[in-house]
Every structure is written in structure tokens, then in C-alpha cells.
Design a protein that fits this description.
The complex is a heterodimer.
Chain A lengths: L4 E6 L5 H13 L3 E6 L15 E4 H8 L2 H15 L5 H24 L3 H16 L4 E4 L5 H9 L8 E3 L6
Parallel strand pairs in A: 1-2, 1-4, 2-3, 4-5
Chain B lengths: L1 H21 L3 E6 L12 H10 L4 E12 L3 H18 L6 E2 L5 E10 L4 H15 L9 E5 L1 H11 L5 E6 L4 H6 L1 H13 L2 E4 L2 H10 L7 E3 L19 E5 L8 H14 L4 E5 L5 H10 L6 E5 L3 H9 L3 E4 L8 H8 L3 E5 L3 H5 L8 E4 L6 H15 L5 H11 L1 H12 L8
Parallel strand pairs in B: 1-2, 1-5, 2-4, 5-6, 6-7, 7-8, 9-10, 9-12, 10-11, 12-13, 13-14
Antiparallel strand pairs in B: 3-4
Helix pairs in contact in B: 2-16, 4-5, 4-7, 5-7, 9-14, 15-16
The chains are: A alpha/beta, B alpha/beta.
């Protein structure tokens, strides 16, 4: 496992213990482990082992999609505009308008056809990380994304696919 | 040309016969439970059975691991379709890893929506295993499944037509399975078609015999195997280090355990209690320990791998097992194997295990909704150990019944129609 790049898809968060145990095994063996998670709130009480990267799906979306512009328009510019006025006005705007629009309108819009889109984001992230050696599909919700991700590879560079580090 | 060809053919047949005669008999084990990183305790008894029975066979374990989810129906269908594609990457051919006893382990996740009926769950196991096998039947002529529904059903529907199928039932939720008409009908079919059916104890056998009196003679008994290999450093003389191993749930009676511990510790401040396991009562127990003023003497280790739990047994003196209901009570035999004294409730499995040996291993008490019986029993077992109670004879007796060699022989006898020694 030394120096190998392992990506663990745990988007549903229903098998968190297995995801973190697998990631810890990889890093203990000298490899690089990245766990991609969906709802970060589910992972609040879970501590990844040192060296394990926990990457939120939303973080990838904010970094790599038009949501960057949404963030600018919805949050950064209004904040700048409200600068100087009371903090209460900004908090009220953020809570009543920006957060609601983000959660209920823009995020669902960005996640339409999420399997392919998330797969593309992960692939972009993974390309920056280096060649992927093993893809671990950790829970049911990750399966459609895993299939989309595998479709982005050519036949020769395909990573090994498993449901756990011990299953390979 | 006919001469050399037939000589070659005869030679090939002879080589094939030699290979076949020396090949270990193939056995497939199909189970929904097997220890893994997500559930380190789940199906420890299945792994023990594999460890005991695999030597002398060519065994493959198919662990059909349920991956429950609460996704909406459309997304659930998307998952099923994606999984079918993924199996092409992961299971064709099936990828096996080494497991206990020299057997091979093939893990087959079974994604399913939480809340399905037992019949639907069993059909899902059947379909997923078939898909993982690429629509080929299990190659082994002997298939041993664990848990009637879903394991037995998946084995029955995926075995080759001439295979002999055996089932061991362990489920504590059997009554709920039999309450559902479709599941009950499937169970009936399973009992009719399998070559042998075993319950791990009377608490499992009794409801089955009641539900299917026509199959009464087909439902036998086989215990879970326990390793008696490791011994503790010194015999127990003072049961000060209490241990509980299991889920921290209402059914395990852990609330009464904590209360009993606090009462006993008021008499002897040296007492400690270790709870190995996890469950929905953990928080309440931490709070209860604090309220009773014993928090500093109580340790919660969380879930531990089976090997670690066994090691801890050898470092503790008294297993307190206040469960309300158990079909077998593997932990009780493990504690005896580790040389511990016992304080257990008559909750089904344990009184069967300790039949005729009740006093030899410690104390057994009735299931009560109070801590009085546990406290009184602790005082008795403490005094008896101080007076020289010897736990070795009960250990030897149970090794003869539940040790690996005894259980392996029982399995091999039925699988391969071997004449065995008595028992």
C-alpha cells in the first residue's frame, strides 16, 4: 500500500466506521487516503486518523462549479455592500435570504444529475492528487457516483475497485 | 491413431482421478453475518465455526453483508443498477481474501432499503449473490448457510441442483420472522428442502418446532464452537474485576448490572467493572455510573475485536451476564474457556449450556427487574471462590462439548456422511 493513492467514497455516511478504519489502514501502511463525504454533519463525532484527508462533496462543488459565482453574488458582494452598517443587518440577510436561496435553490440545481457531476468533480480533484490506485466504494449512496467515476477512465488506467481495503 | 489417443485418454483419466481423490472436499458457507471493520462483533460465531471446520476442506465463505440505506425509491433503484455494474469490476471472477482456518472469504455487499420485510430481504440476498456469482450456481456440493432467512434462502436458491444444503439458525428475531406470512412460507420451503437444519439451542429450536411441527425431526442441534486453546495465568480467587461483553442495550440487562455493581462496590471499594461493547444505552450508563458514584471504577471500552475481548476475559475475574434473553450465549462459554467465574441470568441459552454444571462455574439467577438477585449471587460466588471453588472441571466439560475439535467433527460427519465417534 506504500505510496498508493486510495480514494474512499463514503457519500452516504452510513458506514463511517469502516471508511475511517480503511483510511487508517492505508495511511498506516504508507499510502495516501482521501475520504469523500456527503453530509459533513454526520461525521462530526468521527475523528479520522492522522494523515487521512476528509473532503466534503460540497467543498468540491464550491471549488469547482458555478457555485463559486453564486457564493460571490450571494455572500461576498452583499457582505461588502453591508460593510459599515450593523452586523445585525448582515446576519439577518444571510439567515433569511442567502442561506435559504443557497440551500433550497442553487445547491439542488447544482446537484441535478449528481452522479456524473460529482464524479467529474472527484476526477478533477483526483487528477490534482495524483494517479488513483484503489477506489473503495464504502456505501450504497456512493455506488452511482463510483460507476460514473469509472466511466471517466480509459481501460488501462482503471483503478482497482473494492468495497473495503480488506476485500482487495 | 486410435491406440495412442486412447492411451492418452486413459492417462488423463488416471491423472484426473488422482487429483480428485486427493482434492479436499469443497464447502461453501453463506452468511449474512461475519466480523468486519464496520461490525467487528457481528457473526463472531460464524467465523469461529469456519475456523473450526475449514481445516480438511476447501472452504469458501460468502459474506452477504447488508448495507442498509434510507434513500428515496428512485435513488434506491439507481443504486441497484449501479451496483450491478460495479459487480463486473469487483466480483467477476469473485475476489477472495484469506480468512479463519485457511478458508477464503468473498464479501458481497447487499445494498437494501431499511425497513423491508424479511421475505424481501431474503430475496434481495438471493438476487445479489446470484449476480455476484455471474448467474452461475455455487460450485461446492456442500453448502452451509447461517440464519434461515436470509442466509439459508440465498444458499438454497444459488446452490447447484445436486448440492446438499445445511442451515444453522442463530437468530434472536425468529419470532418476528415467523409472524410474516410470506417469510414463514419461505422458511417452510427451506426446512423441507435442506439436507439438515440445526439450531444453536432450544430458544431457537422451540419456536421453529412450534411453527413447523411437521419438520420437528429435521431440526437438530449444533453448538457454536469456542476456542479453549489459551489459558489464564492464575485461577480466580477473588472476583474483583467484573467484565461485561455484549451490546449495551435494554435486552442485555446492563442497567441492573450497573446498579448491582454500585451496591457491591459499596462493600468492597476495590471492585472494578469493564464494559466491552456499544449500544444505545451507553450514554445512560455513563450517567448512571456518575449518579451512583462509581464512575471512576467503570471503564467503557467500546466495541473490541473478538481476539481482544477474549484477551480481556483472561485479565478479568467475573463475567456478569445479566441478559433478558439469549438463544445461545456464546460469551458464557468463552468466559469459561478463559477461566472466569460466572454470574449469569437464566435467560435461555446459558442454562442450556450449563445444564448439570450450574454451580460449578459460578452462580445462575432468575431474570428479575431488580439488582437484588445479582448482588446476592455475587456475594455467594465471592465466598465460594474464597473457599476454593475450582473452575477447571467445568472448563474441561465444556471443551468436550463446544471445543473446536468436537464441533468440527459434528459438522464433518453430516457434511461428508462420515461415521464419527458417539455424540
Amino acid at each position: 500500500m506504500a505510496d498508493r493513492n486510495v480514494l474512499i467514497l463514503a457519500l452516504g455516511g452510513t458506514r463511517r466506521r469502516a471508511a475511517l478504519d480503511d483510511a487508517a489502514l492505508v495511511t498506516a501502511d504508507g499510502g495516501n487516503a482521501t475520504v469523500v463525504v456527503g453530509d459533513t454533519a454526520l461525521w462530526r463525532n468521527d475523528k479520522p486518523a492522522p494523515g487521512v484527508r476528509l473532503v466534503a462533496q460540497a467543498e468540491l462543488e464550491l471549488r469547482h462549479t458555478w457555485l463559486r459565482w453564486e457564493q460571490l453574488m450571494l455572500y461576498r458582494l452583499p457582505r461588502r455592500a453591508l460593510k459599515g452598517r450593523s452586523d445585525r443587518a448582515w446576519q439577518a440577510y444571510r439567515r433569511r435570504v442567502a442561506d435559504k436561496l443557497h440551500r433550497k435553490v442553487f445547491l439542488p440545481l447544482a446537484r441535478r444529475g449528481s452522479g456524473d457531476r460529482t464524479a467529474r468533480l472527484i476526477r478533477r480533484y483526483e487528477t490534482a492528487m495524483g494517479k488513483l490506485d484503489v477506489l473503495v466504494v464504502n456505501d450504497p449512496a456512493s455506488m452511482p457516483v463510483a460507476v460514473s467515476l469509472l466511466r471517466t477512465y480509459g481501460g488501462t488506467e482503471l483503478p482497482q475497485v473494492a468495497y473495503g481495503i480488506g476485500d482487495r | 491413431m486410435a491406440g495412442p489417443r486412447s492411451a492418452w485418454s486413459r492417462f488423463c483419466s488416471r491423472v484426473e482421478k488422482i487429483v480428485n481423490d486427493n482434492r479436499l472436499p469443497q464447502v461453501a458457507v453463506v452468511t449474512p453475518w461475519y466480523p468486519n471493520s464496520h461490525h467487528p462483533f457481528a457473526g463472531a460465531f460464524v467465523r469461529a465455526m469456519v475456523e473450526a471446520t475449514a481445516p480438511g476442506t476447501d472452504m469458501t465463505v460468502y459474506h452477504c453483508a447488508e448495507w442498509g440505506h434510507r434513500l428515496p425509491a428512485a435513488e434506491g433503484a439507481e443504486v441497484e443498477s449501479a451496483y450491478e455494474t460495479l459487480l463486473g469490476y469487483t466480483h467477476r471472477p469473485p475476489r477472495a481474501t484469506p480468512t479463519a482456518g485457511g478458508a477464503r472469504l468473498v464479501t458481497v455487499p447487499v445494498p437494501l432499503t431499511v425497513g423491508l420485510s424479511y421475505a424481501a430481504i431474503a430475496r434481495r440476498h438471493e438476487a445479489v449473490l446470484r449476480s455476484a456469482l455471474d448467474n452461475e450456481p455455487l460450485a461446492a456440493p456442500v453448502v452451509h448457510a447461517h440464519v434461515g432467512l436470509p442466509g439459508g434462502w440465498a444458499a438454497l436458491r444459488n446452490a447447484r441442483p445436486d448440492a446438499r444444503i445445511y442451515v444453522t439458525e442463530h437468530a434472536t428475531f425468529l419470532d418476528r420472522v415467523l409472524e410474516q406470512p410470506e417469510a414463514r412460507a419461505m422458511y417452510d420451503e427451506l426446512l423441507q428442502r435442506c439436507a439438515g437444519f440445526f439450531a444453536v439451542g432450544d430458544p431457537v429450536r422451540d419456536p421453529l418446532v412450534k411453527a413447523f411441527p411437521q419438520h420437528q425431526d429435521r431440526i437438530g442441534f449444533v453448538p457454536n464452537p469456542i476456542s479453549f486453546a489459551a489459558e489464564r495465568a492464575a485461577p480466580v480467587r477473588n472476583p474483583r474485576r467484573w467484565l461485561f461483553v455484549g451490546n449495551l442495550t435494554e435486552r442485555k440487562g446492563v442497567h441492573w448490572l450497573m446498579e448491582a455493581f454500585a451496591r457491591c462496590r459499596a462493600e468492597d471499594p476495590e471492585l472494578t467493572l469493564t464494559l466491552v461493547g456499544d449500544g444505545d444505552m451507553r450514554r445512560a450508563l455513563v450517567k448512571q455510573a456518575a449518579e451512583l458514584g462509581v464512575a471512576d471504577a467503570v471503564k467503557f471500552t467500546g466495541m473490541q475485536p473478538p481476539e481482544e475481548a477474549l484477551r480481556m476475559m483472561r485479565e478479568h475475574d467475573l463475567l456478569v451476564h445479566p441478559s433478558r434473553f439469549e438463544t445461545f450465549g456464546m460469551v458464557v462459554v468463552e468466559a469459561v474457556a478463559a477461566g472466569m467465574a460466572l454470574l449469569v441470568t437464566k435467560c435461555g441459552g446459558p442454562e442450556e449450556i450449563l445444564a448439570g454444571l450450574e454451580d460449578a462455574a459460578g452462580e445462575m439467577v432468575d431474570v428479575e427487574e431488580s439488582s437484588d438477585a445479582l448482588v446476592a449471587a455475587y456475594r455467594r460466588v465471592r465466598d465460594r471462590l474464597a473457599a476454593g471453588l475450582d473452575l477447571r472441571p467445568v472448563r474441561e466439560q465444556l471443551a468436550g462439548r463446544y471445543g473446536y475439535p468436537a464441533v468440527a467433527e459434528a459438522h464433518h460427519r453430516v457434511w461428508f456422511d462420515r461415521e464419527g465417534s458417539d455424540g
